[in-house]
Specification:
With 102 residues, the chain is mainly alpha-helical. Helices cover 82% and strands 0% of the residues. The protein has one domain (2-73). It starts with a helix and ends with a helix.
């Protein structure tokens, strides 16, 4: 019985001593996991941007192939006679109103 008590006491002491070692190794593992996670995140961001660029380029190519104008402004049509036609309409309405009064 004495040997069992001694054995348990010795195991308890070793466990208390190992507890500090486990804490320090846990901190080391946590730091290593954090640095690996940060590097994986950076790599994922880089590859995600590359994938996005490829998708945009391919999408633009498909849109051009099918004739869909993307990011292109339509040329603005200018009315050559627009102002003259508007002035003529005002004069015409004025003439109709004046002739209607007489």
């Amino acid at each position: 019985m004495g040997q069992l008590a001694d054995l348990l006491e010795e195991a308890g002491k070793q466990a208390k001593g190992a507890r500090g070692d486990v804490k320090s190794s846990l901190h080391c593992l946590r730091d290593e996991a954090q640095t690996r996670g940060e590097s994986l995140l950076e790599e994922a961001k880089r590859q995600g941007l590359a994938l996005l660029a490829i998708a945009a380029r391919e999408g633009m190519g498909l849109a051009r192939d099918y004739g869909v104008p993307i990011l292109q402004r339509k040329p603005r049509r200018r009315m050559r006679w627009g102002w003259g036609l508007a002035a003529l309409a005002v004069v015409g309405i004025g003439a109709v109103l004046l002739l209607d009064r007489n």
